[in-house]
């Protein structure tokens, strides 16, 4: 493989995920910098980081470790008595995150989970958890997002052995051209997997300019199922509600679901996003209208 091939960086980065997850799972000191048991926490980010924040918030609260809310950094309601704010950002340069952290500095303890150790956010937060080994060249995020989530999951006491094994296994899958070439995709999830569904839809839109949607599983039948049809895909992350598969298949759409760790299923989507982009003559390392970090003019 050479860097001249479309998506070369994304391919290398997405394939490294089992190893980067294992590294994050072993980072006990860094995990100790994250909010303590019982703390009331807000987690903020933009784009992909917002969706990972949603997954972390759901995992933390449902495991009984404290009230946890997730916000897009531009729409965060921070003055609600939070004990800490976790700011998740690959670049550490995103305008909305920097502005929020600056606004609450000295009032609410902030913890940055950051890919670039040279970024301005490192010196602005009270504690910096650095993941430079998961940083990326490709504009389209893969491993930084999932590695941050692996760190969060490990900090909550989860054993990631099965997730890592599942991710390694999906990287050896044979190509599924029918899945790759579908007309439309809807992604669903429950609980913490809902954030992964939203991220999957974003990833496929960014990389291949595809028509994608995403919803909490139980909300899908409240309208969105109307677009299910032959040649289209409904992809479910994690355990699916009883009867949903049959209802989707009755429309003629494909119900895509595997009984694997939902984070590993997102790796499977990363592969499909790359393959679909390349098949369409696109380069997901440099997607249309996007940059690595959104830096807004003053």
Automatic annotation (TrEMBL):
Source species of the chain: Microbacterium sp. A8/3-1
Domain SIS stretches: 29-178
Annotated SUPFAM superfamilies: SIS domain
Cell membrane in keyword set: no
Keywords, sorted A to Z: Isomerase, Repeat
Entry annotated with the keyword Repeat: yes
GO-annotated biological processes: carbohydrate derivative metabolic process
Domain of life assignment: Bacteria
Protein name in the entry: Sugar isomerase
InterPro entries given in the database record: GlmS/AgaS_SIS, GlmS/FrlB_SIS, SIS_dom, SIS_dom_sf
MF annotations from Gene Ontology: carbohydrate derivative binding; isomerase activity
Transmembrane segments: none
């Amino acid at each position: 493989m050479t860097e001249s091939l479309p998506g070369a960086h994304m391919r290398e980065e997405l394939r490294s995920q089992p190893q980067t997850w294992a590294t994050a799972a072993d980072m006990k000191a860094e995990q100790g910098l994250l909010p303590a048991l019982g703390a009331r926490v807000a987690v903020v980010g933009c784009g992909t980081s917002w969706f990972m924040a949603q997954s972390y918030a759901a995992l933390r609260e449902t495991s009984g470790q404290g009230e946890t809310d997730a916000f897009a950094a531009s729409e965060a309601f921070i003055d609600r008595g939070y004990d800490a704010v976790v700011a998740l950002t690959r670049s550490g340069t995103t305008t909305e995150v920097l502005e929020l952290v600056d606004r609450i500095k000295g009032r609410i303890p902030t913890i940055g989970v950051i890919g670039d150790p040279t970024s301005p956010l490192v010196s602005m937060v009270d504690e910096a958890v650095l993941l430079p080994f998961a940083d990326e060249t490709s504009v389209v995020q893969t491993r930084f997002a999932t590695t941050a989530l692996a760190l969060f999951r490990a900090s909550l006491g989860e054993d990631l052995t099965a997730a890592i094994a599942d991710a390694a296994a999906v990287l050896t899958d044979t190509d599924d051209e029918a899945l790759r070439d579908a007309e439309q995709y809807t992604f669903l999830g429950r609980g913490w997997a809902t954030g992964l569904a939203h991220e999957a839809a974003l990833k496929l839109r960014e990389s291949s300019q595809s028509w994608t949607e995403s919803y909490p599983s139980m909300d899908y039948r409240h309208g969105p199922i109307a677009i299910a049809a032959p040649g289209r895909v409904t992809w479910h992350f994690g355990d699916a509600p009883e009867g949903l598969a049959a209802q989707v298949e009755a429309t003629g759409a494909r119900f895509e679901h595997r009984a694997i760790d939902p984070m590993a299923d997102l790796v499977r989507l990363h592969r499909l996003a790359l393959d679909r982009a390349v098949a369409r003559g696109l380069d997901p390392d440099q997607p249309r209208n996007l940059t690595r970090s959104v830096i807004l003019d003053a």
